[in-house]
Amino acid sequence: MACPSSVRICDCTIRDGGLVNDSQFSPKMVRRIYQALSSAGVDIIELGYKNSKKMVDPKRYGSWRFCDEDLLSGVVMGIDPSAKLAIMQDAHKADAADLLPKADSVIDIVRIATYVKDIEKAILLENSASYKGYQTTINIMAISHESDPEIKKVLRKISKETNVIACYIVDSFGSFYPGDIDHYFELFKANLDGIEIGVHCHNQQQLAFANTLRSADKGATYLDGTLYGLGRAAGNCPMELLAGALKNSHLDMKPLIDVIGKEILPLRKKIHWGYAISHALTGILNLHPKPAIEHMELPEDSIEKYEFVGLFDQLMQNEALKSQDVFDYNLIKNSEINQTLQPDSHINMQLKPSGT
After folding, report:
1. Domains and CATH numbers, the chain
2. I need a labelling partner for 191 at 20 to 30 A (CA). Which of 236, 269, 271, 296 fits?
3. Comparing C-alpha atoms, which of 152, 161, 150 is closest to residue 128?
4. What is the mean pLDDT of the chain?
5. Regarding predicted confidence, which is higher, 320 or 187?
6. What DSSP character marks residue 350?
7. Do residues 346 and 177 touch, judged by C-beta distance below 8 A?
8. Helix (H/G/I), strand (E/B), else coil: 45
9. Strand (E) positions, the chain?
10. Are 78 and 103 in contact (CB under 8 A)?
């Protein structure tokens, strides 16, 4: 597809990939990845979190969970600075005081991740970062668990009370279909007063790439991806696929596939990400991936590891699933689609009865 000149590509390999290995990457590896992404023409490179060491245990997590200034400076030193350097702050885990003034930092963009319930914290962080001279975004997580009226309220607050360059649709649980992208894009567009829209997709149902392209087609101007899809659970939209799909973009495929072969694929010997039945089930059910991650971590010789029906039954008992009214499998599985579902539900299809 054609790539509008307004589209910016953001790579989240180290930040989202750090959710798989507790951010335990070596500085040398991060520098090689940063160099490759910069050479490939990626617009924004996110190198990790800048969360508070008072709220996140530095003994458990690696340095990319905190992104101290000297660490970042060592990575980017001597590399063409055409790409903007980004970090992420979790609204419920970050301290605004940890961020230096922009004049004293190599960071360009502060991306603030928030749940709807934490929007006041996110706005305080954004206001502080903006005041210090940074560009900012707010990335709203888990919106598939929120009602449209609640999302509207948050979007209007962001529009009125922040200076963000973009607000992100985040498919936290990999539950979205392209129709959901359409729905949320229109919802965001109608309530953001001209603020640009970004998208960050997870790949539980192998739709992260398709959903990202759908977002670009709708008009999203900030598109996230990671090298070889590296990221929590089923991972993210693969950056190399974006490079291939956005035909007239400035992205160069060669540095991407080179660093994937040399740095990313060897990680699969130690950590797991990507499509799996366990992850697919949580995506289909619009659930947090934690139970699937725990299931994937079972020993290879464990009988339960490949008992997917048991996992499915367990997930169906999840209280969050019941409370969010994602869908009632017992009503749908042997009948016509449940007519009580709202039109904007991410489940808009009939499940086939067992055995068909």
Report:
1. 8-269 (3.20.20.70), 277-324 (no CATH)
2. 236
3. 161
4. 90
5. 187
6. P
7. yes
8. strand
9. 8-11, 44-49, 84-90, 109-114, 135-140, 166-171, 196-201, 222-225
10. no
Q: Distance (Å, rounded) from C-alpha 295 to C-alpha 282?
A: 11
Backbone angles phi, psi at 237, to 5 degrees: -65, 125
Closest CA to 23 of 68, 79, 65: 65
Q: What CA–CA distance (Å, rounded) separates 47 from 154? A: 27
**Is the pLDDT higher at 277 or at 2?**
277
The answer, yes or no, to whether residue 332 has pLDDT greater than 50, is: no
Cα–Cα dist 201/186, whole Å: 17
Residue 90 phi/psi, 5° resolution? -80, 130
Token readout for 117 is 């319930």
Full-model pTM:
0.90
Closest CA to 136 of 162, 110, 99, 102: 110
**Do the beta carbons of residue 334 and residue 356 sit within 8 Å?**
no
The predicted-structure confidence for 137-185, as pLDDT tens digits, reads as follows 999 999 999 999 999 999 999 999 999 999 999 999 999 999 999 999 9
Give the DSSP per-residue string, 98-150.
GSPPGGG-S--EEEEEE-GGGHHHHHHHHHHHHHTT-EEEEEE--GGGS-HHH
Q: Assess contact for 162 and 123: CB atoms under 8 A.
A: yes
Distance CA 52, CA 19 (A): 16
